Amino acid sequence: xPEFVASLLAAAAFCVxxxxxxxxxxxxxxxxxxxxxxxxxxxxxLGGALVVARVAYRRAPQRETL
Length: 66
Prior knowledge:
By secondary structure, the protein is mainly alpha-helical. It has one domain. About 70% of the residues lie in helices and about 0% in strands. Helix 1 packs antiparallel against helix 2. The chain is elongated. The chain starts with a helix and ends in a 7-residue tail after the last helix.
């Protein structure tokens, strides 16, 4: 069960991080502050969301072995 909870938390963290990074990217594009080839759901956003998901998975409660 702890493995399921860790996976669920990591998936939720990935989705939330991707939404936040896409929103920030959209704001940068509209404000003309980012580079012209910066796009939504690009490598930068997916990579950042994967890093957040990995951190969430590592910090989730793990099963203690006896």
